[in-house]
Amino acid sequence: MLAEISAFLESIAPAGLAEDWDNVGLLVGSRDHAVRRVMTCLTITQPVVQEAVREQADLIVSHHPLPFRPLKRITDASPEGRLLWELIGARIAVYSSHTAFDSARDGINQRLAEGLLLTNVAPLVPCPAAVELGTGRWGIYWEAITVAELAQLAKTFLKIDQLQVVGDLDRPLKRVAVACGSAGELLSAARDAECEAFVTGETRFHTCLEAEASDLALVLVGHYASERFGVERLAEVLAAQFPPLTVWASRAERDPFRFV
């Protein structure tokens, strides 16, 4: 039943960890809905919906919520309404953990920090209710590495060929902050934690200038790359927790950016 899967997802990424502006939890469907096939994805797009319908998924566990903002109507007159109408017509439920999963004990930011081989990992902005949880992460390297070496670690872990860097590639680092997605607003928190570099998906041009002026290196890996590995891992976790289910990460999903 969908209720059991929802309860498990809530247990690993409690809704209380989500940002106030977010929309998390079971967003489409009935808790009594029978589930046999589950697909995870970063974002629900037309190719993702087509794959879910073609592969007869009963549930999509997406990172980014659909819907995200309140809707006055669900019709095919808007892209968001069209996707929801197709999913409802195919009886495919939607669950999203988004920023709750970002901040969870074993969520995307924790895994990103560990994937970059950081040690003594702790939340960048601790949750008042539980200091071991919170937004972003920071950690240390016992032996200093350079910005260039940090960038290479990110490329290897995230399986990407290119990224963007702000700062001196030869600068040695010991304290590094990470935050998936678009997390430029955490720059000051990284600075307060006395980090020398900040790894995130993307940020604004003026945030890059602010980082440069603050002598804080930035490694921008791309929004998609900073989070997609997390939903691939989540598919493995769900498959292990619910062996009778068929679970997979969307094969149709792609990073919308291309380097030419």
How do the strands and helices of this protein lay out in sequence?
Blueprint: H1 2-12, E1 25-28, E2 37-41, H2 46-54, E3 59-62, H3 79-89, E4 93-96, H4 98-103, H5 108-115, E5 119-127, E6 130-146, H6 147-158, E7 164-166, E8 172-182, H7 187-192, E9 197-202, H8 205-213, E10 217-220, H9 223-241, E11 246-249
Parallel strand pairs: 2-3, 2-11, 3-4, 8-9, 9-10
Antiparallel strand pairs: 1-4, 5-6, 6-8, 7-10
Would you mind describing this structure in some detail?
The protein is α/β, with parallel strands linked by helices and 260 residues long. Helix content is 35%, strand content 27%. The chain has nine helices and eleven strands. The protein has helices at 2-12, 46-54, 79-89, 98-103, 108-115, 147-158, 187-192, 205-213, 223-241, and strands spanning 25-28, 37-41, 59-62, 93-96, 119-127, 130-146, 164-166, 172-182, 197-202, 217-220, 246-249. The strands form two sheets. Strands 5-6-8-9-10-7 form a six-stranded mixed beta sheet. Strands 1-4-3-2-11 form a five-stranded mixed beta sheet, with helices on both faces. The longest helix is centred in the C-terminal third of the chain and has 19 residues, at 223-241. The mean pLDDT is 95.
Task: Supply the helix-strand structural class.
Answer: alpha/beta
Approximately how much helix is present in the residues? 25-40%
> Number of DSSP helices?
9
**Helix-strand string:** HEEHEHEHHEEHEEHEHEHE
Outline the biggest β-sheet: 6 strands, mixed
- In terms of quaternary structure, what is this? single chain
Judging from the principal axes of the Cα atoms, what is the shape? globular
Determine Rg (CA atoms, Å). Answer: 19 Å
Global mean pLDDT:
95
Q: How many strands? A: 11
Distance between the termini: 46 Å
Low-confidence parts lasting 5 or more residues at pLDDT below 50? none
Strand order of the largest sheet: 5-6-8-9-10-7
Kindly estimate the percentage of residues that lie in beta strands according to DSSP.
Answer: 25-35%
